[in-house]
Amino acid sequence: MGIVERIKEIEFEMARTQKNKATEYHLGQLKAKIAKLRTQLLEPPKGASQAGDGFEVTKFGHGRVALIGFPSVGKSTLLTLLTGTQSEAAAYEFTTLTCIPGIIHYNDAKIQLLDLPGIIEGASEGKGRGRQVIAVAKSSDVVLMVLDASKSEGHRQILTRELEAVGLRLNKRPPQIYFKRKKTGGISFNSTLQLTHVDEKLCYQILHEYKIHNAEVLFREDATVDDLIDVIEGNRKYIKCVYVYNKIDVVGIDDVDHLARQPNSIVISCNLQLNLDRLLARMWDEMGLVRVYTKPQGQQPDFSEPVVLSTDRGGCSVEDFCNHIHRSLLKDIKYVLVWGTSAKHYPQRCGTQYVLQDEDVVQIVKKKEKEEDGGRGRFKSHTTGAVRIADREKKAPLKQ
């Protein structure tokens, strides 16, 4: 029996099992088995030494956004409108067969937009090159799930289920669970609050399913069984997702209002070029990019080309700003002067751990190089004279 058949068999067993207190341990073990099998399904086959046939492209710019959706929902047309890159669009499905990149120039930043082939139900099992498409989406900062406004809501649920099956968690944060494997000592289970979904016995059974008999587990929130399995697996990717409903020009105003009020959703029309500016603004907010402008000493700030930082790509502190310019700059820094929304007064003198905000202006003050004679006047660090008093040269007496 193959891995896919075993997964379907376990899912069928979970569907016919009643959910109550007596069966929660059994269901927890079944969820752990499915997670293990899906991890094995994503691993390359043994003995495959040659490279795969993926279509990964080189990262470029300050961020990466991937377009994911079913065939013929308007992904290629959206790429052409936002970037100017010509992507083939036609009236038949699966027009795009490979990954087509484009660059969006927005707010003095460069954002890479990837047009991926359409995926179908069963993409997590490898149907329609679904694994390659989802692998590219894992390397993105934000996922734009393009949906057809005239179709049913089931498409959104199918795509979300396919992405979660391969370890992508959309619009979620990592669970506050501390997990560490040990060599000896057994399993240590603790929590800082009362748990309602997981108890000690269920945690032991899930760990034994993974053949883990020595570990330390600490719950800092009321997490579920799925959260515990995600922490044990350790290969989950938590990514932001915006649901983009295209073709709103073919539905009624009531349906458009209903779709626009859903969380993490935005409505557009590529045919009439409606609401594209709102889509770019929402994409910018989700990526959380921070533009920092430099100011040389005694000169005006340089607003032509900012230094773009991100929390997901290194951080937004002064230390990250200096490392972005040059690695050797940090050891020569004395302090920095900051102007902008993050400063309490202008200018504010800050250290290397200060967190910058969007459109801040930074001036770096370096340490002065030590002179060869060790300083001047009473600030000398050393002297060239004799060390002992007896060895000092006596001065001539003053003339009377």
From TrEMBL:
Residues 389-400 have a biased composition (Basic and acidic residues). Residues 368-400 are annotated as: Disordered. The keyword Nucleotide-binding applies. InterPro entries: Beta-grasp_dom_sf (IPR012675), DRG (IPR045001), G_OBG (IPR031167), GTP-bd (IPR006073), GTP-binding_2 (IPR031662), GTP1-OBG_CS (IPR006074), P-loop_NTPase (IPR027417), Small_GTP-bd (IPR005225). Residues 63-288 form the OBG-type G domain. Keywords: GTP-binding, Nucleotide-binding. One of its GO terms (molecular function) is GTPase activity. CDD domains: DRG, TGS_DRG1. Gene3D superfamilies: 3.10.20.30, 6.10.140.1070. Residues 288-366 form the TGS domain. NCBIfam families: small_GTP (TIGR00231). This is Developmentally-regulated G-protein 2. It comes from Ceratodon purpureus (Fire moss).
